[in-house]
Amino acid sequence: MSNAIVWFRRDLRLADNPALQAALDAGHVPVPVYIHAPEEEAPWAPGAASRAWLHRSLQALDADLRARGSRLVVRRGDSLAELEKLISETRAEALHWNRLYEPASIARDTRIKQGLKSRGLEVQSHNAALLVEPWTVQTGQGGPYRVFTPFWKNARQVLESVRAAPPPERLPDPPATLAGLDLKDLALSPPAHEPAWDAGFWKHWTPGESGALELLDVFLDGALHGYRRQRDMPGRVGTSRLSPHLHFGEISPRTLVAALQAGDWPAAIRPDLDHYLSELGWREFSHHLIFHFPDTPTDNLNPKFGDFPWADPDPALLQAWQQGRTGVPMVDAGMRELWATGWMHNRVRMVVASFLTKNLRMHWRHGADWFWDTLVDADLANNTQGWQWTAGTGADAAPYFRIFSPVSQTQRFDAEGAYLRRWLPELAKLPDAALAAPWEQPGLMREKAPDYPRQPVVDLRASREAALAAYASVRADGPARR
Question: If you write DSSP's letter for every residue of 23-57 in order, what string do you get?
């Protein structure tokens, strides 16, 4: 039989994997390959938390392949050079991969496809990551969307036809002589002689396709019921927590949609289901934006913010934010959850981002960079869209002067303090009523929370007024373009 290289990147699964399936359908022996070349993603090479997840995800993929008679061949170096070696070593007749949508990846993949096709090799790329690819959804004027609601109204029309392919039951073995690296050679996880800073992650996560499917089952049986209301409550398991699995392609959005559509749901669940689908829609919208506006990971989408008066970064304040020592409980709880688990509840992400960009008035890139290094679901499209949305500089960001009050957010979404007490044990003895703004009761703080900062690093009211004054200098030029 002929061979075909299947180049795995962020599609680390066997189910609903179009590149793998295309090689099988063509009658080839798939040769599963992963090439480690983080420098080709510069300046957005994966951060530390992502690398730690990637190590375990690749382990899981290799185990799944071996259980079906195949294996993962791991290489490191220039992707084109390594692919050329693999093609020569296997006499492969075809190369298949699933598309990525970040600017650096698009440029790299285009160069590789053109180079190998010119030499007579069959090269095909496929969609494994999105429900709708960025160029397939356009406004009535033929341009990209900049507002979510009309984008999703258009894009969600594909949902009725979504299907997810099952994994192959067996796979032929690649050539036995084909050599690869051991995963430890990639140095993705902390070395054995260093502190295992990621040890706490794995109490919360199981990287790999099996872990993703198990989490999906848990969500369908549990948090989906009441999702619309409970998804904003960080002290409860009210979300799917599938974001890192989606980012690494351990599960496809088509699989999620197919599972939701296959359920025999009572009418009362429909609002929850529709709301979850809209959250998948925001993921689609983020990829739509980064494809059409590739400079947004570093530049404001809204050019009116080019001269915005950001504060000079204060290293001490930035460090207090990073370490969860701002004296503002909702902010500190979120940042400590991030450090301990590699993840943060979405409602809290908005609160901590608002605090950094509005109350501290630091440029959103400082927060985006920190999230990039510490999140296990650090996705360039989602990270960029989330930070620009909260900062008010991006798409769908009206009113751009919105400032999340960490006090009122706590009172609304963690009134009983379950989330704060979990991540801020030094506040555990405070009564519920004192948790949102403990600095207002200094005597109680001295008695029951002596190890927590006595005051926030910045006055919330004064900093809010200063932020509003700064944002008043930005004048809207009519409604956002669709």
Answer: HHHTT-EEEEEEEE-GGGGTT----HHHHHHHHHH
pLDDT-flagged residues of the chain (< 50)? 476-482
Asked whether 409 and 229 are in contact (CB, 8 A), the reply is no
pLDDT at residue 396 in the model: 79
Q: At what angle do helices 253-262 and 209-221 cross, to 10 degrees?
A: 30
CA distance 174 to 273: 42
Using DSSP bridges, classify how beta strands 122-126 and 94-98 pair: parallel, antiparallel or unpaired: parallel
The pLDDT score that the predictor gives to residue 398 is 64
Question: Which residues lie below 8 Å from residue 286, measured CB to CB, with a gap of 6+?
Answer: 379, 381, 382, 384, 385, 386
* Domain range for 24: 3-127
Residues 21, 48 contacting (CB under 8 angstroms)? no
Report helix, strand or coil for 5: strand
Q: In what order do the strands lie in the sheet with 29-36?
A: 73-76, 29-36, 3-8, 94-98, 122-126
> In a 3-state reduction of DSSP, which class is residue 98?
strand
For residues 372 and 439, state if they share a domain: yes
Regarding whether 101 and 70 lie in a shared domain, the answer is yes
- pLDDT tens-digit series, residues 423-450: 999 999 999 999 999 999 999 999 999 9
How is residue 137 written in tokens?
């959804």
Tokens of 467: 């932020």
Number of domains within the chain: 3
- Residue 8: helix, strand or coil by DSSP? strand
Kindly state whether residue 196 falls inside one of the protein's structural domains: no
Q: What pLDDT, on a 0 to 100 scale, did the predictor assign at position 482?
A: 39
pLDDT for residue 475: 63
Kindly give the interhelix angle for 48-67 and 364-374, rounded to the nearest 10 degrees. 40
Alpha-carbon distance values, 159 to 155, 227, 257, 264, 281 (Å): 8, 20, 7, 17, 11
